[in-house]
Every structure is written in structure tokens, then in C-alpha cells.
Amino acid sequence: MFAIYREKTHEGIKEVVKPFDWSYTTEYKGTVTGKAFTSENDPIPIALLKRPDPILFFEEVVLYESELDDNGISIFSVKVRVMPERMLLLCRLFMRLDNVIVRIRDTRVYVDFKAGKVTREYSATQEKFDAVMQVSHAPTFRNLWEQPAEPVYRVSYVPGNCPMM
Predict the structure, then answer these.
(1) Quick one: which of 104, 121, 124, 158 has its CA closest to 43?
(2) The pTM is what?
(3) What's the order of all strands across the beta sheet hosting 86-97?
């Protein structure tokens, strides 16, 4: 009985999308509802974020994680940091396919409470695995676990657009 049901589960499928991205890479930049972003090119003020302002709230949530069938790692996480005058949200995909490629997709949303301004920045960075290992402080997998973004950004960081609300 189960075999008959299993054979019929694919009857409605007309087309299979190929190639399937088994690394779980996403280009999700966030969903905007209400007021749309404008395309001004003011970058997120990193100097303000480096100030020693008190952190009122911080949280990190891993949305999904896969070991890519023991061929690397793919982690999609969200971090939020709230300070008295500003907030930063980082949505990051980090993907390492062993001996092939390292990829990072970042969406940062910066909110300036005083100015009432919201800035979103998206960047897509990737490099061949060997090139990343050459610029790492210690050429081991451990370095890519401790500071995964640092060696990739040193090789090929290309900032994305910075629309504002």
C-alpha cells in the first residue's frame, strides 16, 4: 500500500529545477514593508559602532546550520545589537566548502534612532578555499571557525549597495 502511494507522490511534478544548490547559499537581503528604501550611498557609520557605548541588548540566533554532508559548513545567523542611540542587525550566511570555496553573504541594517534613519547594506564575498587559507593567520580550518569573515574579507571584500529609508 505504501509503495503505491510513494510512486504517485511525484505525478504532479512537471519540471525539476537544476542545478540544486546543496550549499544552502542565499541572497536574501531582507523584506521591506511600508516605506521603501531609497538609493543613497551613505555607508553604515562604522566609527559610531566602534564607540564604547553601553549595549542594551545583544542576541545571536542561528537560523540554520548544515555540515554539507561532511564537506564543510553552511551557517545562516542573525545578530542584533542595540545601543542607546543606534541599532545594528547582521544577517550572515557563512559557507565553507572544504578545498573548494569560502562564501559570505552579509545584510546589515543600521538604525539611527536620533536621525530616524535606517540604512541597509548588502555584500557578497567569496574566494577560492586555497586563497583564503594563504591569507589566514594560521592555515588551518580552526582559523576559519574562530574568525570566519576576516580572511575572506582580506582577499576579496566587495561592499554592496547602501539604500536608506
Answers:
(1) 121
(2) 0.72
(3) 57-66, 72-82, 86-97, 101-112, 117-128
C-alpha cell at 157: 571584500
Residue 110's beta-bridge partner residues? Answer: 88, 119
Q: What is the pLDDT of residues 15-25, one digit of tens each?
A: 766 666 666 77
CA 138 from centroid of its chain's CA atoms: 24
Q: Which residue has the higher pLDDT, 142 or 112?
A: 112
Spatial distance between the Cα atoms of 87 and 111, rounded to a whole number of angstroms: 5
Kindly state the cell numbers that stand for 64. 540554520
Query: Within 10 A of 145 (CB to CB), how many other CB atoms are there?
Result: 11
* Length of the chain measured in residues: 165
Q: Three cell numbers at 46?
A: 562604522
* 3 state DSSP class of 10: coil
Structure-block grid coordinates of residue 15 = 519540471
The residue written with cell numbers 540566533 in the block is 61
Sheet strands (E) in 71-141: 72-82, 86-97, 101-112, 117-128
Q: Which three cell numbers stand for residue 100?
A: 573548494
Total Cβ atoms within 10 A of residue 141: 13
